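Milestone M4 deliverable, item 7.
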Amino acid sequence: MSWDEFWIIFAVCAVTILLCRVVPLFVLKGRELPQGFSYALGLIPPAVFAALVANDLLSPEMFDAGLWPAAAPLIAAVCVVIIALRTKSLLWSALGGVAAYGLLLLL
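Output delivered:
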């Protein structure tokens, strides 16, 4: 890749980042969004997080190593969900999940 091609790609990326991330901030500054739109935007982070976690927990070859190696992360995830629902704390959920997974690996 030549330097000319590099600078063209760099400029296109910079313009795209500005259009997608910075311009909406200036356009929406000081405006009140409709309640339904705000609610829908609030659902995006949990949906993205759930998709990332599900991608790591569930895979087509997860049972190739046996039942227990595939079940341990799922049981730890259930523990995390229970802790999260009871405490509403990210810290306790993360610590509980790591502890549950560690204990399950020792079994």
